[in-house]
Amino acid sequence: MNPAFSVIVFTTLSGAGYGLWCWLGLRLALGGVAHADAAAWLAGAALGGVLVTAGLLSSLGHLGKPGRAWRALSQWRTSWLSREGVAAVATFLPAALLLMLLGARQLDPVGLGFIHVPAALLSAAAALLVAGSLATVACTAMIYASLKPIPAWRQPLVLPGYLGFALLTGGLLDQALLAIAGRASPAAAWAMLAMAAAMAVLKLGYWHAIDTTPLAVTRGDALGLPTRQASVFERPHTEANYVTREMVYVLARKHGRALRALALAMFAALPAVCLLAGGIWPAAAPGLLALAALSALLGAAVERWLFFAQARHLVSLYY
Amino acid sequence: MHAPTEPAIDTSPSPGDEVKTTTCYMCACRCGIKVWLRDGRVRYIQGNPEHPVNQGVLCAKGSAGIMQHYSPARLDKPLLRVGERGSGEFREIEWDEALQIATDWLAPIRERNPDELAFFTGRDQSQALTGWWAQQFGTVNYAAHGGFCSVNMAAGGLYTLGGSFWEFGEPDWEHTQYLMLWGVAEDHDSNPIKLGLGKLKGRGAKIVAVNPVRSGYGAIADEWIGIRPGTDGLFAFALIHELLKADRIDLDYLVRYTNAHWLVVRNPGGADDGLFARDAEGRPLCWQHVAEAAAMHADTTAGTSDSRTRTGRAVAADAVGIRPAVVGEVSLPDGRRAVPAFHLLAERYLDPRYAPDAVSERCGIPADTIRRIARELAEAAFEREVRLPIAWTDAWGRTHAEMVGRPVALHAMRGISAHSNGFHTCRALHLLQLLLGAVDTPGSFRYQPPYPKPVPPPNRPGKARQANGALDAAPLGFVHGPEDLLVDADGAPRRIDHAFSWAYPLSSHGMMHTVIRNAWAGDPYRIDTLLMFMANMGWNSAMNTAQTIGWLTDKDDDGEYRIPHIIYADAYASETVAYADLVLPDTTYLERFDAISLLDRPISDADGAADAIRHPVLDPALGGSAHADDGNAVPPRPRDVRGFQSVLLDLGARLGLPGMVDEDGSPKYRDYADYIVRHERAPGVGLLAGWRGEDGTREAKGAPNPDQLQRYIEHGGFWRSEAPEHARYFKMANRGYLDWAQRMGFLGHADPIPLQLYSETLQKFRLAAQGHGTHQPPVAHRERVATYFDPLPIWYEPFEGAQADDLGERSGDSAFPAASSAAAATPVGHVDATARGSKPHPYPLSAVTQRPMFMYHAWGSQNAWLRQIASRNVLYLHPDTGIRHGIGDEDWINVTSHHGTITVQARFAANVQPDTVWTWNAIGKRKGAWRLGADAPEASHGFLLNHLISDITPRGDYANADPVTGQAAWFDLRVRIAKVDPRGETAPQFAPLPYGTADNAPLRYGAAFRKGRKPGDTP
Amino acid sequence: MTALPPPSKKKLGLVIDLDTCVGCHACAVSCKEWNAGGFAAPLTDEQPYGKAPAGVWFNRVHSYELAATDFTTPAFDPGAHDALGLGSIHDNSGANRGAGANATAGCAGASPLAQEVAQPAMTLHFPRSCLHCEQPACVTVCPTGASYKRAEDGIVLVDEDKCIGCKLCSWACPYGAREYSHVEGVMKKCTLCIDRIYNEHLDEAERQPACVQACPTRARHFGDLADPESKVSRLVAERGGVDLMPELGYRPTNQYLPPRPRRAEAAAPPQEPLDTAQLPGVLRWLDRVLSR
Ligand SMILES: Nc1nc2c(c(=O)[nH]1)N[C@H]1C(S)=C(S)[C@@H](COP(=O)(O)OP(=O)(O)OC[C@H]3O[C@@H](n4cnc5c(=O)[nH]c(N)nc54)[C@H](O)[C@@H]3O)O[C@H]1N2
Ligand SMILES: Nc1nc2c(c(=O)[nH]1)N[C@H]1C(S)=C(S)[C@@H](COP(=O)(O)OP(=O)(O)OC[C@H]3O[C@@H](n4cnc5c(=O)[nH]c(N)nc54)[C@H](O)[C@@H]3O)O[C@H]1N2
Ligand code: SF4
Ligand code: SF4
Ligand code: SF4
Ligand code: SF4
Ligand code: SF4
Ligand SMILES: [Mo]
């Protein structure tokens, strides 16, 4: 599949945004929010919002008729893309609500109480944000995971992969923000380290799986002649067309290997080193964690690029 | 209607404001089309279901007519050259000036010596007009494109059957059980062949494709015979050998319809050797068995053909109720010895050198396959005969209750004819058909009226100029003997192309491929003006393109062009336009009147005669561009173009040519439409056969009808008259047909037409070469004529392979080998395995082209739709061949012939005979031509094999052509290949032509039709 | 609405005869021509006269080489092999160009006709357009409802007024039948010539898709595949028509008729009725009584 820039940007950024929202929401729902980190929280929520929105805007850039994007909300009964749209829009509601609630608390720093925000409401909104974020990312994953013509995407590790990258990149951003606010927690760092390792294992497993599973259908099947071995004599047109550009994108194997190593280094190895180093030199933690987050984001983007570039669409059997 | 959630859609939109019925000319097949117009633009072109040629279907080219018509490459005003020839720099001029210039050039020529005008037309189908025009002008130097196209097919057929493959005959699609396609990729009968193949498939008839490449028709054939190029004659002989050996031939058919039993005089060294024995009235004789004698001779197996003792007598061969002998030497009453023609035939092809085992290696076909095919042919012909319950009367008045046919048909085209041995190979195929009794019988090859013609057809080429300056006959025709050649007293050519000379005596279509070299060289004389029409002679229809361009631009020492004037009529900015001094812009097929005439290349089918017209469905002055639907496209400028036929008549009138002016010197015809209606070739005979007579009630012959074109337009643009049912087979000897054909004017008389297994015409030339008769070839040509004018088909190694091998072996010799006897002159069926066995051939591979079904020569590349299908080409080779030459798939390679080198990309495909490489024809374009972008793949990655094809033989003694007909031997090309470093471009590249480039903005043709969509419109 | 309608009573579609298709591209170009100004107009062409011409086509004609199914012919040597049309032993070197791993053919579900006898190598022309599937994921993935399957006759269409150009439907189609136009910003596809087949302005006989009408070998057939008595259904039954990639479960309506087995009978020993070495062969006909 053609790795379209807009789609890679979209899924990586909005994934990170939703991941960030998810962690923020989780902490809020579980632990409540102390006055002191509301600002940090707000910064995180805003960053998440920016990432999500930038991602979604970028995805509009992928559309031929962005002005009609609203129509995409209508077919949630059948379409994962529609569901994703609905979930994305819906997730803005708890996010906005939380922003309002926390904003209100910020405006009442001494607890005058004229703006009273019940903790239960906060927790509920936070829980909704978590659910919405996870659901949106899951929908995104399902857009791909539901496509039968692309066996590499119709793969059990795709959904956890999308969720995992959202949580990893979002989590690292969260940690970086916390570190900047001086509230880095070693426990969280260990958790992120474990996540990075898990994602590395997951991706290695995924790559191994797609490398070793032959396409279930052959060119013969595509031609309705399952017993014949067919090779291309002439393509219909000598130059490229939409289908070949979009779906018959072939990435050289050796480039694939190098890029996979790069992705692993960036989304797992370097963040892990940063996390460890941050634990050793807490003073450097903000910078190191920011680097970890950035590296993971770029690594995720490379991973996403490969996710497209190495997925073979069955229509390529015809070409 | 639709479910509530579905949008309402209009399933009945109007297809257009009006529909006009005319004839397609995206290629020479000439299908009927219906052109739907909307808001003055073409909405859609479909096949006309009523039309006899295409019955409603339409090919890819025809369907792309919109883009051809609105092509940005169209010329829109007459052009006068301002820069150097070839620079492509012109000034636009008005028609009056253009016609005045042409008149000023041509008038003195006509005064001085009309032969100084060479008028050569290409893909055109108005030879009935252009040939006549040349005749009136008085030049012998006229030809249409057949000489470089497929004259071997035409002549091979016409000198044997009085009909031919090509578009003048067809398999009996309804009844044939076994079809062999020999070297056919597409042919002119594009849609009829496809319709027919579909029918055969539906019936489960067997199709065999003999072709080094398995694509297109070969892909759906039941069997593919991947033959080595140029060896079909050997294969055919081996089949004949097998049939003779197994006595699976139709002798009754042969004695009824052919000259099998005609007695051939055996008088070695004599002036009558090899001629038919004739009686006092000139009727050929045969040997009539005397019944009692039969038993006596039943045991004459003594290994002698000496028949002096045989009882019998010579009788007229066309007598009926006789029992002619087909073998055995006899003594004629005058004492001369003679044998029936069949005897000679059987002797020749029973020779072991034509046995399957002997030819197998050279042809690349296993001997068992050859034997099996022979058996299958015989089985289909004799065990599955077709009986149609149609009573008929033969030419001798005998009635037959049914028509019995042999359901075997062959069809052949340029894979056979585009070789220097193509004439004989084509004749070999006809012999094969005749031996099976499979010519114009139910299930076999069938003639399309006006064929068959007498063998050879009666019209001889014009030679002498009359008092009014016109030639005594049209410049092209059929030579019957040495006396008909166009040679001077010394036997030197009289025509600029050397057609009808001793070098190429039966060149019935002229030799377009030699004109430019000869005009440049002044061989045999200098000409003044070269007038060309619809032929891209500066590119894909030239052999040796690079030098051709050089000849077109070469100057004498005095700085004048060696070819002083070049006038060219084209509709598009083709490569050749750049080489004209004066460019006459033509209309497209949707803008002009045309006659598809029975006097020319008719659209008849085997059951009936037909002709057709084109008429303007669009006004040229409207202009129009494919981009016009784009809101911001520049409004197209009106086009100032004229139909070339009308221009020709205008020119003729300005020159005062006979037949083109009235007594008072005023133009006789308003335009071509007027000419189509009013011109009479002979009393009552005009270009069109339909709706003749003042009231339009006459067919074929009748006074001009002023409303004739209107009648055609009302009747879908065509006229067809079915032959009576009893007249549709055995046309060469069917009383019903012969009478009908005479009534229609197809035949001058209603005599039967004996088919010529043995060609006395060829023998006359051989005798002349042996020193007999009043017209003898100059010494230099004698051996050649004697060799290649064998009255029975022969096979010889195609010249290029034989001579390039020869030269290759001598490489190191600095001297150019003299034209002497060598491999090429050895006309035997022998495999030259010895030559090949010891030393590798310097050019081990054959290189051929194929027509892509979706593209017509050069003129499809400007078409925005067709060029998407192929805008570049590659050289296909078998993977084994690649491995043998150290070449990988998609590598860049040098392809080298004895003549030159090109650099192209290779692509592996296993569906080709491994000693053959091939590519699609005419995809490669010159940069800037056709107004394509400078980076268009056609120029950067496309290529022509033409750069490798020499216009002369390796030895340089003759044109690269068949020695009998002068047919260009495109497919004799031999090459070697070698890997080179990857390139970004093919080579050679030529200086880009400065025609300007087309608007490359997205094309949204049809957007306006969508906008204008209103439900419920009626057409 | 991208939810699929209940199965329609009518299933209009095409039957394409691969035994007869010569790969002429007529169907592709006539499709382009009709539809350029039809329901889905325009079928925009980019760089029409330039370096990389690429347009919207609803129908594209591919060509393939099929390897022989059996290499155990009697007279096997590479030359003879090729001449017999049996392909080459070395086929694989070039033949699998770009095909990657698909040589691991699963042989289950072989079509009944294609496999009875060993088959020589063949060239196959293969036109490809929308199959108007019964379970078209191209429809169900569509977020806007622009893609839909008609309840009445099963035709799958795009309502270009709703389409946002997200291209997801093209990803969901395994057959490559959807064509996006960057210039128009919307998805396009074969309409089964919805504006011809019911068009009252056309003669009844012409109410068929442009590609079917044009096909010069008449290898394309149009009709109702739900009606077992229709001409197309009978053709499918007689000729063993197949679904493309049935394992994907899209249940295409269009059917392909596989090439009929090739028939080059095995070479039996030749008859030798006449030994030409023994006697002058021509004399055999010396006393043949022929009538003229
Ligand atoms: N679509 C389309 N149709 C056309 C044309 C076109 O340009 N495009 N051109 C028209 C014209 S002008 C002509 S002359 C006709 C030509 O019609 P065809 O004769 O059908 O055209 P070619 O493509 O020259 O086909 C030659 C075939 O012969 C094969 N061949 C080459 N050498 C040999 C050989 O030695 N033996 C055998 N058995 N086969 C051999 C080639 O592989 C090829 O398949 O087509 C006409 N129709
Ligand atoms: N290598 C190789 N070369 C070959 C062949 C081959 O098989 N292999 N085949 C040969 C054969 S058989 C042939 S017939 C030739 C064909 O070659 P050409 O006769 O040169 O055919 P085209 O390239 O189509 O060029 C015809 C010219 O007619 C112009 N034209 C198109 N429509 C019109 C019109 O309506 N009016 C006017 N006035 N002009 C128009 C086109 O613009 C073009 O310049 O090629 C020959 N060349
Ligand atoms: S074969 Fe095609 S291009 Fe040629 S006349 Fe017929 S429809 Fe036109
Ligand atoms: S072929 Fe593709 S576009 Fe057509 S209905 Fe099936 S899935 Fe949809
Ligand atoms: S591109 Fe259009 S038709 Fe296709 S899924 Fe998107 S909105 Fe639907
Ligand atoms: S049915 Fe119509 S739209 Fe579909 S491929 Fe055929 S011509 Fe094109
Ligand atoms: S028009 Fe017919 S023969 Fe030609 S490619 Fe299409 S299906 Fe095949
Ligand atoms: Mo030709």
UniProtKB/TrEMBL annotation, chain A:
<keyword id="KW-0812">Transmembrane</keyword>
<dbReference type="InterPro" id="IPR007059">
    <property type="entry name" value="DmsC"/>
</dbReference>
<feature type="transmembrane region" description="Helical">
    <location>
        <begin position="124"/>
        <end position="145"/>
    </location>
</feature>
<dbReference type="Pfam" id="PF04976">
    <property type="entry name" value="DmsC"/>
</dbReference>
<keyword id="KW-1133">Transmembrane helix</keyword>
<feature type="transmembrane region" description="Helical">
    <location>
        <begin position="187"/>
        <end position="206"/>
    </location>
</feature>
<dbReference type="GO" id="GO:0005886">
    <property type="term" value="C:plasma membrane"/>
</dbReference>
<protein>
    <recommendedName>
        <fullName>DMSO reductase</fullName>
    </recommendedName>
</protein>
<dbReference type="GO" id="GO:0009390">
    <property type="term" value="C:dimethyl sulfoxide reductase complex"/>
</dbReference>
<feature type="transmembrane region" description="Helical">
    <location>
        <begin position="7"/>
        <end position="26"/>
    </location>
</feature>
<feature type="transmembrane region" description="Helical">
    <location>
        <begin position="261"/>
        <end position="281"/>
    </location>
</feature>
<feature type="transmembrane region" description="Helical">
    <location>
        <begin position="287"/>
        <end position="307"/>
    </location>
</feature>
<dbReference type="GO" id="GO:0009389">
    <property type="term" value="F:dimethyl sulfoxide reductase activity"/>
</dbReference>
<feature type="transmembrane region" description="Helical">
    <location>
        <begin position="38"/>
        <end position="64"/>
    </location>
</feature>
<feature type="transmembrane region" description="Helical">
    <location>
        <begin position="157"/>
        <end position="181"/>
    </location>
</feature>
<feature type="transmembrane region" description="Helical">
    <location>
        <begin position="85"/>
        <end position="104"/>
    </location>
</feature>
<keyword id="KW-0472">Membrane</keyword>
<dbReference type="GO" id="GO:0019645">
    <property type="term" value="P:anaerobic electron transport chain"/>
</dbReference>
UniProtKB/TrEMBL annotation, chain C:
<keyword id="KW-0411">Iron-sulfur</keyword>
<dbReference type="InterPro" id="IPR017896">
    <property type="entry name" value="4Fe4S_Fe-S-bd"/>
</dbReference>
<keyword id="KW-0408">Iron</keyword>
<protein>
    <recommendedName>
        <fullName>4Fe-4S ferredoxin-type domain-containing protein</fullName>
    </recommendedName>
</protein>
<feature type="region of interest" description="Disordered">
    <location>
        <begin position="253"/>
        <end position="275"/>
    </location>
</feature>
<feature type="domain" description="4Fe-4S ferredoxin-type">
    <location>
        <begin position="120"/>
        <end position="152"/>
    </location>
</feature>
<feature type="domain" description="4Fe-4S ferredoxin-type">
    <location>
        <begin position="154"/>
        <end position="183"/>
    </location>
</feature>
<keyword id="KW-0479">Metal-binding</keyword>
<dbReference type="Pfam" id="PF13247">
    <property type="entry name" value="Fer4_11"/>
</dbReference>
<dbReference type="GO" id="GO:0051539">
    <property type="term" value="F:4 iron, 4 sulfur cluster binding"/>
</dbReference>
<dbReference type="InterPro" id="IPR050954">
    <property type="entry name" value="ET_IronSulfur_Cluster-Binding"/>
</dbReference>
<dbReference type="InterPro" id="IPR017900">
    <property type="entry name" value="4Fe4S_Fe_S_CS"/>
</dbReference>
<dbReference type="GO" id="GO:0046872">
    <property type="term" value="F:metal ion binding"/>
</dbReference>
<feature type="domain" description="4Fe-4S ferredoxin-type">
    <location>
        <begin position="12"/>
        <end position="42"/>
    </location>
</feature>
<keyword id="KW-0004">4Fe-4S</keyword>
